[in-house]
C-alpha cells in the first residue's frame, strides 16, 4: 500500500480533542488546499538533505511520492485516538522494513515534515504549534521504530515468491498463485503488499484469497486497471517462474472466533478475494454460523469466481451466496442489503471499490448496524488502491 497510505482503523471516539490535536487540525486546514506544493517541498527537502534516501523510493515519484507524507499527516490527525493509532502505526512500521527504512532516518523525515508545514501553514504556525507537531511526530515515529525493531527479531523484511499458477479469468482479471521462499504466516481476511520485478519499489496491496494452506501457497485476485502499472504487469506480463516480493501481512478484517454470530459479507469485483478466505476460515473452524455473501459485479461476465462460491455453497449448508449484477439488478450491491435481513446478530464484512464500501457502511448504519460490527480495511489509500 503503498503501506504509507494505510489509515488508522477509524473507530473515532466521541471525546473532546486535546490541545495538540486542535493545533494539528488547524495546520491541516491551512495546508490541505495546497497539499501538492507541501508534498513537493517535503520531498525536495528530504532528498537534498539525505540524497541516499532517494533510492528507497520508486523511480517515478509522482506515483506515490505523497504516500509517506500523507500517512504521517493522517496519523497526526488521529493523535488522540491512541488505540487505533497504535495498531495502524505498528503495521506501518513493520511495513517500512521492506523499503529499507532505518531508525536513524526518522529524525530527518520529521525535520522535513515540520519544515514543510512551517512554510505552508505560516498563518497559523507558532512555537506552540511546532511543539505539538514535534510531540506528535515523536510519538508516531517511536511507535513505528519500536514495531520495526520487534518485527526484525521474528520475521524477514520481505519474502520472495515464485509465480506457480496464473489463471486468466477474464480479459483483465487473473487469479495468481505464488510459492513464498519461506513460510508466510497470515490470517484469513488480511492483505499484503506486493512488488513486481518490472516496477521496482512500487508496492500494491492484494488480499489473500484463501486461508493459510498446508502447501504454503498464496493466491491473489488481480484486476488490470487503467494506469495500474503493477496490476497490468501482473495480469498481462507475469509468467510462471517469475519472482515477486511480498511485504508483511496487514489488515484487521478477520473473523472473531470467540462469537458465533453470523457474517454478512459484501464483495465487489475482485474484493471478493478476502471474502472467500473468510468463508474458508469459518469452514475450517467447524463453525456452523450463518454466512451470507453478496457478490457484486458490473456484468455477468465480471462474476469471474462465481463457480468457486457456488461450489462452497453446495458443500456448506450455512453459506448462502447471491450475485448482484449491476446490469440486471434494480439495486446496486450495497442497497440490496436493505432488502434482505434483518441483520441483527450479524457482523458485516465489506471488501471492494471505495465507493461500494462507503455506501455499504452507510446502508448498514441506516438499518441500525453498530459501527463496531462493521469491518473493512481502509477506503482511501492502499488497502483498496490496487493499481
Ligand atoms: N484484489 C484484491 O485483493 C482486492 C481488491 N479490492 C478492491 O476492490 C475493487 C475491485 O474493483 P473492480 O473489480 O473493478 O470492481 P467494480 O468497479 O467492477 O465494482 C464491483 C461492484 O461494486 C459495486 N460498486 C462499485 N462502485 C460503487 C459505488 N460507488 N457505490 C456502490 N456500489 C459500487 C458495483 O456495482 C459492482 O457490483 C478495487 O477497488 C480493489 O482495489 C478490495 C479488496 C481486495
From TrEMBL:
The keyword NAD applies. InterPro entries: Cbr1-like_FAD-bd_dom, FAD-bd_FR_type, Flavoprot_Pyr_Nucl_cyt_Rdtase, FNR_nucleotide-bd, Globin, Globin-like_sf, Globin/Proto, MRET. This is nitric oxide dioxygenase. Its EC number is 1.14.12.17. Its cofactor is heme b; FAD. Residues 156-256 form the FAD-binding FR-type domain. It catalyses: 2 nitric oxide + NADPH + 2 O2 = 2 nitrate + NADP(+) + H(+); 2 nitric oxide + NADH + 2 O2 = 2 nitrate + NAD(+) + H(+). Keywords: 2Fe-2S, Heme, Iron, Iron-sulfur, Metal-binding, NAD, NADP, Oxygen transport, Transport. It comes from the Bacteria. Residues 14-149 form the Globin domain. In the C-terminal section; belongs to the flavoprotein pyridine nucleotide cytochrome reductase family. Belongs to the globin family.
